[in-house]
Amino acid sequence: MKPCVIQQRAEVEPVKAIRRFTVRPVLPDPLRPLSDLARNLRWSWHTETRDLFQAVDPERWAASGGDPVRLLGGVPPARLAELSEDRRFLRRLAAVAGDLNDYMTGDRWYQAQSEDLPAAVAYFSPEFGITAALPQYSGGLGILAGDHLKAASDLGVPLIGVGLLYRHGYFRQTLSRDGWQQEHYPVLDPNELPVAQLEEPDGTPAQVALALPGGKQLHARIWLAQVGRVPLLMLDSDVEENDLGERGVTDRLYGGGSEHRLLQEMLLGIGGVRAVRTYCRLTGHPAPEVFHTNEGHAGFLGLERIAELCAEGLDFDSALEAVRAGTVFTTHTPVPAGIDRFDRELVARHFGPDAELPRIDVDRVLRLGMETYPGGEPNLFNMAVMGLRLAQRANGVSLLHGSVSREMFSGLWPGFDPDEVPITSVTNGVHAPTWVAPEVFRLGARQIGVQRAEDALTVGGSERWDSVADIPDQDIWDLRRVLREQLVEEVRKRLRTSWRQRGAGTAELGWIDGVLDPDVLTIGFARRVPSYKRLTLMLRDRDRLMELLLHPERPVQIVVAGKAHPADDGGKRLVQELVRFADDPRVRHRIVFLPDYGMGMAQKLYPGCDIWLNNPLRPLEACGTSGMKAALNGCLNLSVLDGWWDEWFQPDFGWAIPTADGAGTDPDHRDDIEAAALYDLLEQRVTPRFYERGQSGLPDRWIEMVRHTLSTLGPKVLAGRMVREYVERLYAPAALAHRTMDPDAARDLAEWKERVRAAWPGVTVDHVETSASEALAELGTTLGLRVRVGLGELGPDDVDVQVVSGRVDEEDRIGDATIVPLKPVGSAEQDGQWVYEGPLSLDRTGPFGYTVRILPAHRLLASSAELGLVAGPSEELVAAGGLLMR
Fold it and tell me: Which of 57, 106, 594, 825 is 20 to 30 A from 477, alpha carbon to alpha carbon?
């Protein structure tokens, strides 16, 4: 007998693959439409499509996170064969596929408008939040861009989205045992995402390339995500043709140093235009007439378009005018620190003969972005400044933010009051079909029908929302409780996962079953965590907060989420401070912090909250759309009057937190005052309103506020309303200007601007007189005004001479001005001067003043402030009198 040998298995490290493939299932012919449905991201906001995928395999649908591509990759062949013979399922599949076909090919709002609208609009953004299944977003800017694309699709606007495909996306957030934020960057395989490679006719991947210093090149392939009717092109530098450094250019969103960011933004802007040209060539899509730059990151797109026109024979200045005519720039930041700025030498190294755009003089490139205005940093290249100089039309993202932006960028238009700076505003909106809970939609559909409810969420129109008044109180209250109960379940699930990641064992987590209560007033607070958003303002007086959380009759519970930027240790300390408070066994059933805030969490969080809290430092919130998403689900806002809330707040549907933002206010003292005001509102106004019951046994006053939120705010906060405003106020005028600005017109305008700038030192206001004999006049009097001006080398066709009048303050500054043009009388006098005359109406009582100014005038200017040139009376002339009536 052989001796018995006991063999022990050696511990072996898992074998690592040298190459990775994504193996896709072969769908039976009857199920082929499932592939088309999965590849069009309309499923992310279309309930019937999601319900269909859930029916394929409910367990795998849940495990896939609601991602159809992952779902279909994991369904066993036996289940697919079973479905291919299931007549009921196939009928549903045919109906949903037919609905998508109608959606993609039928006329929508845009097609019913005038023929003057642009044939196509290219919309550039560094990030797009379409769905959690395509994690290419970090926060508000990306979610807004995604909602813009989805609303454009619903309205039939022929948009082409342009962005980058990041192999790590934005970071995933977990917490350490002591509550410190930890970042993780999972690798994303595009083959496992709902995207497809754009291919040339021979089947090879379509690519674009940028020239780099030293004779190198940056190559990028083009991925296509279909967002309903809107194609989204995303550039990916992780291709074999690149060296290791260049492969990493699109590694992660908002990562890396200055050169890394500069290369990302060159690829987005310059490479993005080339990708659009490639896409239009391959598909026959109409070429964009309008280019929309969503924040300054994509500003280089204007340089590429200038280079295109220069290659066709235009000089730089003429090409600049042609490009400006069809460009829209949207700024999203209310603070200079939020803008990307690069050292001029770094920018200079990447342009010119040895790098990109070799036929454009580097000094011309630099001049577009340099901060050559009082208070600017003359050695820094500012992406937002370049965006404004390359766009004839610009806007902020709320009424207040428009005002803040005009003040912030006023140095680009010297001599003009901030109110006249040519930056308008289009208040952001949110894509209701994405953010409205299915239960809320079903209640509306039951009231007015499915089609009218869908129209109310996409196109808008207050008449469709007025029917909320007819929904019974009991139905509204029952809905709110259902949504709150769903949030409680979601919070417990996520909290258990988070504590396990922090190292807790199952035996330690029994308390989580008692976290939150579906009958307690629930407050939500979720956003990025820069210091100005004040995540921890609620902790200012911890004893008072505890009393609110643990009140025996009127308790509150709070759900908090948010990510700090990986490089922001100050933000991470705020997260840790909040987490440590929420870990306290005395209150952990009433306040929770949920890590890894993203779209999936947000879609559960907004509907389940009764109050959405927002307490930024005013006016540092450009818009703040999270409260809009909450409002669409019947959640009331409790917010500082900043961003959109400053514009639309009414006591009928929410509360305003008073601010202590006076000049010289100590920051700590200001936070104390505003936190105390927050506690007062919760104690005295909010909780009593939620818990008091009327004769019906329901909180009828609270329900009435919910009703006002839906009927009044509903139509305003829609991305459909926002996109319609962009079309009517910005895209249509830009398209008209683009068509008008043919090469001859562009040359004429460029030559005229050069002539005007050269001649402007000779433009003067030399004498002003009125028909008034004394400085006292009656209301309603109209005076005659006679002005003598010097125009130097210019003529009356080159200028507007205006009288500006209105009430004046103690320093004789004119407010709420009325502007009236004056007309030339006769021809030039012997000394080259011109006489202008016109009326001056004294239409307001009290201190009243006027002045006279001269502005450049040309039919192709979008604004009289465009050149930043203005001439007015000299100080001597003002001192001589005649310019002020009291």
Answer: 594
Report in angstroms the alpha-carbon separations of 113 from 464, 724, 727, 837.
21, 11, 10, 42
Cα 347 to the center of its chain, rounded Å: 26
What are the residues facing 247 on neighbouring strands?
none
Structure tokens at 236: 């990916």
**Inter-CA distances, 459 with 123, 433, 465, 720, 724, Å:** 20, 11, 12, 5, 8
**DSSP-assigned letters across all residues of 424-451:** EE----B-HHHHS-HHHHHHHHHHH-HH
Measured between alpha carbons, how far is residue 594 from residues 498, 564, 579, 637 in Å? 7, 13, 9, 21
Q: Determine the Cα–Cα distance for residues 854 and 802; give it in Å rounded to an integer.
A: 6
Is residue 793 within 8 A of residue 833, CB to CB? The reply is no
Distance (Å, whole) CA 734 – CA 219: 32
Q: Which helix (H) or strand (E) holds 745?
A: helix 743-759
Q: What is the spatial distance between Cα 836 and Cα 824, in angstroms, rounded to a whole number?
A: 4
Long-range contacts of 798-802 (CB under 8 A, 24+ apart): 798/752, 798/755, 798/756, 798/856, 798/857, 798/858, 799/763, 799/854, 799/855, 799/856, 799/857, 800/854, 800/855, 800/856, 800/857, 800/864, 801/836, 801/852, 801/853, 801/854, 802/852, 802/853, 802/854, 802/855
* Cβ-based neighbours of 136, under 8 Å, separated by 6 or more: 127, 128, 129, 130, 142, 163, 164, 165, 166, 169, 234, 253
pLDDT at 883: 44
Which residue from 563, 572, 309, 432 is spatially nearest to 46, judged by alpha carbons?
432
- At residue 528, the pLDDT reads 87
Which pLDDT tens digit goes with each residue over 48-76? 999 999 999 999 999 998 999 999 999 99
Instruction: Return the beta strands (E) in 562-701 as ranges.
Output: 591-594, 611-614, 636-640, 654-657
Structure tokens at 52: 């269909």
Q: Lowest mean pLDDT: which of 130-144, 386-400, 728-742?
A: 130-144
* Calculated CA dihedral for residues 164, 165, 168, 172, nearest 10 degrees: 80
Task: Return the SS3 of 552.
Answer: coil
Q: What angle do CA 807, 809, 814 make, to 5 degrees?
A: 50
Q: Provide, rounded to the nearest whole percent, the portion of the chain with pLDDT above 70.
A: 94
Nearest-CA neighbor of 207 among 216, 194, 215, 198? Answer: 198
Q: Has residue 879 got a pLDDT over 60?
A: no
> How many other C-beta atoms are found inside a 10 Å radius of the C-beta of residue 456?
27
Residue 330's closest CA among 260, 283, 256, 383? 383
Structure tokens at 152: 């454009």
Q: Token match 């008008």: residue?
A: 740
Helix 743-759 / helix 316-325 crossing angle, nearest 10 deg: 110
Whole-model pTM?
0.94
